[in-house]
Design brief:
The chain has 259 residues and is mainly beta. The protein is 8% helix and 51% strand.
């Protein structure tokens, strides 16, 4: 193989890896409110992340920023039943703009039946539920997602299938005290496992997480730790994200309640 072909292949490989990392890595809280601990009748949550560093032995904010594999900064609104109905998403850097706005629609049983970008013509995915009311399949225009559950109702597997490319992303969840202890993300085509392990406080908030098996480039990840400040409802309003005991992010929340 010529050097030119080798270099081209390497570049393509790096691009694919970068796309996969962005797609399959999640915020330590997994995905939006799937594993979040929220108390009280919350009307909205606004969450903004900043790069941080240690100054005079105190963590301080530097600038607004959130790494690509973390969930976007957002402002989410809930109905009185506690279901998200609108989510405004902000870009990673402080540009003063909105990336996109998502709207969520539910049936009378409170089951999600559609979500779409605010300025788009809604395309209606198909949702299928079992007799217990659990979502078991979501059909999109180019892919579909299967869900299956443990006997106690906790999510066991979430499998996203792209028939056009013949690949699957399989999330496998294991639990401790009904909170996610381990998230194993498997990409079938590349035969890659990325495993996140979590340690929690008594309320279920993640205080530590680590990638224990990942791509070679990511095996250098250290234990990530989280320190919180809470409001009177015991929802956290400030989170300091530390790696190797040094602050790397400060995440702030503004929470509005119905009562």
């Amino acid at each position: 193989m010529s050097n030119k072909l080798k270099i081209t292949g390497l570049l393509i490989g790096l691009i694919v890896v970068a796309i996969l990392i962005k797609f399959i890595f999640f915020n330590p809280r997994e995905i939006m409110f799937e594993d979040a601990i929220i108390y009280g009748k919350v009307k909205s949550i606004k969450e903004i992340s900043y790069e941080a560093e240690l100054r005079n032995n105190e963590p301080v904010k530097i600038k607004r920023w959130r790494r690509g594999h973390l969930t976007d900064d957002f402002h989410c609104f809930f109905n009185e039943a506690g279901l998200p109905i609108k989510r405004i998403i902000y870009p990673a850097a402080d540009t003063g703009t909105v990336s996109r706005t998502l709207l969520y629609k539910y049936n009378k049983r409170g089951q999600l039946i559609n979500y779409y970008h605010e300025n788009d013509i809604p395309t209606k995915p198909e949702y299928f539920f079992n007799q217990k009311g659990q979502l078991i399949k979501e059909m999109g225009s180019s892919n579909y997602i299967r869900y299956d559950y443990y006997p106690n109702g906790n999510l066991h597997h979430k499998t996203q299938v792209h028939p056009e490319f013949g690949d699957e992303f399989i999330n496998t969840y294991t639990y401790e005290n009904n909170f996610i202890k381990c998230l194993d993300i498997y990409y079938t085509v590349a035969d890659w496992h990325i495993i996140n392990v979590y340690e929690r406080d008594r309320s279920g908030n993640i205080v530590k997480y680590k990638l224990v098996n990942a791509l070679d480039e990511l095996k250098r990840e250290k234990w990530n730790e989280f320190e919180y400040k809470f409001d009177k409802y015991h929802n956290w309003t400030k989170c300091i994200h530390l790696r190797n005991k040094k602050p790397i992010y400060i995440i702030e929340r503004e929470i509005e309640y119905y009562d």
